Amino acid sequence: MAKTPAPEAPKDASTSTVGKGKATPSRAEQEAARKRPLVPDTKEAKAQRKAELASARERARIGMANGEQKYLPARDQGPQRKFARDFVDAGWHLGEAVMPAMVVVIVATFIPLQFIQYWAFVALWVFIFFVIGDMIITSIRVKRAVRDKFGESKVEKGLGWYASMRSVQMRFMRLPKAQVRRGQYPS
Questions:
Q1: Is 12 a residue whose pLDDT tops 70?
Q2: pTM over 0.70
Q3: Total structural domains within the chain
Q4: Cα 178–chain centre separation
Q5: Is 57 within the bounds of a domain?
Q6: Nearest-CA neighbor of 120 among 131, 134, 132, 110?
Q7: Domain extent at residue 114
Q8: Which whole-number Å values give the CA distances from 126 to 84, 107, 130, 137, 148, in the listed order?
Q9: In whole angstroms, what is the distance from residue 15 CA to residue 2 CA?
């Protein structure tokens, strides 16, 4: 055995206790804290999930109607599509009157005079040919305007069809909703 005494601890060292400051919980306490029902309260959970989905759908619907990019479907996204939408929304198009014209033809078919029924159908077909012509002209004008703004090689495929289909819809039924007034063509 060694006869040298052990070195003494320095006197300036603090004697504070190191630890978490509370007792370790027992196993039963830990299990009780983790315990939850095996089957959640389905009525409350379903109602909460349904409310969350409804609010998310409402936000998406409002965002899409306002033209916010993150809520738009893929077919409506991009600067060229926005330009085409604004270009179509700024003008007047024959296609917007297709639905009212068809209602007039349906009403005319109830009139018992064959003469009126015949001319109503003829007028409808003539009107449809004019609408198709307006769609073709709109498609050409939109593509030309996009080419002028974005460059010759940058025109997206299907842009003319997109614009002509939008021109056939009645203005108040278009989604995303029209962001420009009539006559306010994009530059």
A1: no
A2: no
A3: 1
A4: 14
A5: no
A6: 110
A7: 78-173
A8: 27, 18, 6, 17, 33
A9: 29
